[in-house]
Amino acid sequence: MKSSFLSLIRVDEAVDLAKSIAPAMPPERVLLDDALGRVLSEDVRSDIDIPGFDRSWKDGYAVFAADTTNATDSIPSMLKLKGRIDMGAGEKMSLSRGECFNIPTGGQMPDGADAVVMVEYTDEVGGDVLVKRPVAVGENVVKKGEDFPEGGVVFGRGEVLSASDLGALAAIGYYEVPVMKKPVVGIISTGIEIVPVDKKPKVGEVRDVNSYLCSAFVRKQGGIPLHLGIVRDNEEEMISLIRSGVDKCDLILISGGSSKDIRDITARVLYTEGEVLAHGVMLAPGKPTIIAKVKDTPVIGIPGHPAATYMVLSVIVRHLLVAMAGFSDTMKSVRKARLVTNISSEKGREEYVRIKLVAENEAMPLFGKSGLLNTIVESDGVIKIPAGREGLEAGEEVEVFLW
Amino acid sequence: MKSSFLSLIRVDEAVDLAKSIAPAMPPERVLLDDALGRVLSEDVRSDIDIPGFDRSWKDGYAVFAADTTNATDSIPSMLKLKGRIDMGAGEKMSLSRGECFNIPTGGQMPDGADAVVMVEYTDEVGGDVLVKRPVAVGENVVKKGEDFPEGGVVFGRGEVLSASDLGALAAIGYYEVPVMKKPVVGIISTGIEIVPVDKKPKVGEVRDVNSYLCSAFVRKQGGIPLHLGIVRDNEEEMISLIRSGVDKCDLILISGGSSKDIRDITARVLYTEGEVLAHGVMLAPGKPTIIAKVKDTPVIGIPGHPAATYMVLSVIVRHLLVAMAGFSDTMKSVRKARLVTNISSEKGREEYVRIKLVAENEAMPLFGKSGLLNTIVESDGVIKIPAGREGLEAGEEVEVFLW
């Protein structure tokens, strides 16, 4: 076994490396009702003009705008009421100068009419309508195809579908939606001290926290977690889990035990069973990260401190999952804030510091021990201190990468 | 039928009213793996001290801190190596002055030892260890119970569970998690022009957009949407859907057709079948909102313009769902930004304006027609113009409520 642990790579190099081995997810079709948060696998286009006809956007009267010029409360324009337009009637009316139709919101504009006067500015008197305000051509009318024109691309491949997007997909007829398959992510926990969550740990043992950090993180990022198992210290078992895992999974995450010996077993197995592309990242906590490939399936070895696990998930694995899912990371996960205290940092080394957002978008660094779970539970995200800086100052604006 | 449509209430009154009729969700237990985003129904406590023993937080040597005072590279402290501590061994070692144990990260501290010297600052020479830096008492040691003490409340009732929270729940032994049940939300679309999504609309017809806006929104807010059906113009059908719906659902959303006639049918049915608490809200778009109760089940009548539907969902229904789910709305859904242009507004009326976030947290108002879907698809959220203001100015800091 040759260890390249000492040649640490930078976080951005690790991210690029991880992305370079991300398998693309094949497309599938899901029901519109199940498409929230999914990623479009192809451009979607409208099969119809929306609206399909010139529609009124208000309750009122469809008119020739020119017939209302100079209309006022005291000298209204008087138009002949030619009829009432019903919703969904399908039959198209037509209008001549000096006439108007009563029209509901959403009603189809009659031929000739080019504007709608809101009912508030009218009085119906017998067979006539008094219009007390002028309207401009096009006023209160939504033109055919103004919302989405037939054949136009409504969303491009890679769009992450929001609730309002699903409304638009309904409008353009996507009862089924073409999306990327969710990646299946196998999860292995290692460490001779690890016991399942439903067991009470004896002295020297700890419960399997990392499997759940990984599975919840995968789910949050739109993947399907698959628990492959806990390996205490048996190398054969690890090999067999990895071999069967690569056939079922698009990605495997192995969170190591916290001892160096166990980490060595994970590394040794990855060196013999696959190809180790990087072993060690300039990330604190999170240095002993392994990026490997077994039979074309990316395998990420993650250090076993829960806080280090979460950092590696958020800073490296996240980008891998995003690349697999085929979307660009959204702006909503980054937020500007002001530092409330100075943070010192070793120059020449990129550092990530967990922070908590406090009132008025202020970022408070949490300097907990990296092994403690409560520091990740309390934090809202991390900020990056670039390698070229010796620290950040209170009052400085920082970008918070929300967990 | 008595209509109270003309007595409009303010948005905050509508929100309070909706919250006042929100039924509380009963608790249930779900597997830890399924608990992401769920809301705790009770306080959860740790059943054990975490860590369960004083642990080393680094690879190195467990020592008496006092034995390292004044240690330097040139004049190291020499300690006798008493042995090596293995992970998960369970057997507790003990240490005398002048001795040390080799200890891995996570290893159990021997009795007597009060600090760990990192391996980087030591040399092993035969049976001795040269320590080249002093350590303080407690350095590189995580004390028993320091992360979570036995019996301590780790999360309170109402906590929305994040990925890192699930890691902490694993640590404290919650293989099953007590959460609030998800509310089942029945959805009815009305309007004689409405056709199902998989049909191609004829002239005068539109596809059922609002059912999907509602269902996706409900899902996003942690509820379970249930499509009750489309009612074109049949009052009996509406009554029967509502009657069967209130038995199956914790909340019913009825999105009206866009015409006044149809809206009247919805209102008339709600006036006869239940109790209408409010009819009309000072919200644009979104004025013709109905807040009602049928047999103790809240029923919200929502206007049929998709953009108005989405506004009412985001500004009113959201709070109702949050109240039902039993959590406080999170800070992540609000974000500060600067307006890029002036917005004028009618004084005395609270207004909500859709905005798009542009580079560097700037908010660009979108002044689209409220009936257009593309304005909600393009927007990231809304800002509120208080009733007392005549508008907002370019450069002003605003709070964006993200969709």
Give a quick precis of the structure.
The first copy, chain A, is of the alpha+beta class. Helices cover 21% and strands 30% of the residues of chain A.
Task: Describe the model.
Two copies of one chain form a homodimer. Chain A is α+β, with helices and mostly antiparallel strands and 403 residues long. Chain A folds into four domains: 11-25 and 182-325, Molybdenum Cofactor Biosythetic Enzyme, Chain A (3-Layer(aba) Sandwich); 36-50 and 152-180, Molybdopterin biosynthesis moea protein, domain 2 (Alpha-Beta Complex); 55-142, Molybdopterin biosynthesis moea protein, domain 3 (Molybdopterin biosynthesis moeA protein, domain 3); 331-402, MoeA, C-terminal, domain IV (Beta-clip, Beta Barrel). Helices cover 21% and strands 30% of the residues of chain A. Chain A is built from seven helices and 27 strands. The first copy, chain A, has a six-stranded mixed beta sheet with strand order 7-4-6-5-9-8, with no helix packed on it. Chain A has a six-stranded mixed beta sheet with strand order 16-13-17-20-19-18, sandwiched between helices. In chain A, strands 21-24-23-25-27 form a five-stranded mixed barrel. In chain A, a hairpin with a 2-residue loop joins strand 19 (290-294) and strand 20 (297-302). The radius of gyration of chain A is 31 Å and the shape is elongated. The model of chain A has no long low-confidence stretch (mean pLDDT 88). The interface between A and B is large, with 97 and 100 residues. Chains A, B: Residues 186-323 form the MoaB/Mog domain.
